[in-house]
Amino acid sequence: MTPRWSVVNTSPASSKNWDSVTTKKNIPLKQASQLIRSAHCPLLISHISPDGDAVGSLVGLGQALRQMGLEPILACSDSIPARFNYIPGVGDIVQEVSDPFDLVISLDCSDMERLGHFPQMPTFGSTPLVNIDHHLTNLNFGDVNLVDPRASSTAEIVLRLLEYMTVPLDAEIATALLTGIVTDTRGFRTSNVTPQVMEAALRLMQAGASLPTITHYTLNRRPTAAIRLWGAALALLRLEDRVIWTSIPLAMRRAAGYTGNGDAGLVSFLISADDADVAVVFVEREDNRIEVGLRAVPGFDVARVALQLGGGGHALAAGCNLPGPLEEAQKRVLAALRVDLARQSLKRSGAG
Questions:
Q1: Residue 25 reports pLDDT greater than 70
Q2: In the chain, which residues fall in CATH 3.90.1640.10?
Q3: pLDDT for 273-318, tens place per residue?
Q4: What percent of the chain has pLDDT over 90?
Q5: What kind and span of H or E run contains 155?
Q6: Dihedral angle sign, alpha carbons of residues 214, 220, 225, 226
Q7: What is the pTM of this model?
Q8: Does domain 15-219 have CATH number 3.30.70.270?
Q9: CATH of region 224-349
Q10: End-to-end CA distance of the chain
Q11: Which of 148, 196, 258, 323 minimizes the number of CB atoms within 10 Å of its CB?
Q12: Is 339 exposed, middle or buried (0-12, 13-18, 19+ CB in 10 A)?
């Protein structure tokens, strides 16, 4: 589906301008800083089915802007999962925006369609937009794009921005941002965990963030309804050509009593199967859209298929949002995966 709104990228900045070290010569950081300092009521917004990086970046940046004397509005079109309730300030996130804003900051979103639906979106074109993200498939839709695919998380980029702006870190900001890093790296286990990421985590812990607390709530705990949902979805599990997949129909979610967003982390569990290279979970939403979560083992790339289907993400973790019905979405995704994975296998064998 093509968004009904668009923002012309007038900035010369792109991800190519990024350096792994924050410096005063970093043009995107300077431009973003100038826009933020000139704003009064910025709208901070993140993607549908929010994960820890979306929530952590949103709340962490929001707390920092309040510390600067601004009055930010924090918004997400979907409800925030209860497991993030330990983050100070998470209750400030709203699902509907009624107040005026003079700047838009998109967080952890590769394209504007992933932001969901807000009535004000057609007016975004007349409001400056800062796009902060770490997805390789980001469309650079902002007037200023702080997009670094090498970053572990959007929270890491937000930390760079705050340090560039010399905003003091406190325990509340640090807790939110470390949540983003921990969840997107699955507890510092992904391939993009670098010494710089560990140093960023150290600075956040020194500012007051508790790594054991964050790990406990984000990685080690889930509601009973989510476990019940996993059980029902695992009963439908399929393994075909090293692609392991299942579906979560709306009726299944209701029967399990699961009121959260997405697949409750199931797709990340499925990719641990030792006879699969790719994992897929199809989730039927209330709006009749099908949310597709994709994961891959190192050496394979699911971002290309996600991008082809209108989504985005990383090589090892991507997703898209398709129209229903569920069966049609399954056919589209699995067919695209078969073609793309065959090409990747040929390339890996040296025949491509």
A1: no
A2: 15-219
A3: 999 999 999 999 988 899 999 999 988 999 999 999 998 888 899 9
A4: 72
A5: helix 154-164
A6: positive
A7: 0.82
A8: no
A9: 3.10.310.30
A10: 32
A11: 323
A12: exposed
